[in-house]
Design brief:
11% strand, 37% helix, alpha+beta, globular
Length: 114
Amino acid sequence: QRKAYVFIGASLVASGMIRADEIAELERAGVEGEILRHFLDKDGRVVATELSERSISLPVDDLRGRRVVAIAGGPSKTAAIRAVLKSDFLKGLITDEATARRLIGSSPGARPPK
């Protein structure tokens, strides 16, 4: 199955800024998610693409060390959220309980880890 589902609800796709061939480029590059137009692999490393070169955003160095809080959730976003969390860009995440449980590998009704 293609990874394109990760980008279906993303603002870049919803706004029509990403074409099908660009989604394919992101998939080939191993992109799992994005934050502020910076694309990330599964380990949270920035992936440079032609698309990221022409996107307007704060430079990566300006994101680190700031108080950046993301709002994201849903089953199709778990891998993307995990990638962003690994990037060390975020100081906080606002999400729903089901997504939080998927991120920590817990099931409903289980006690959260300490």
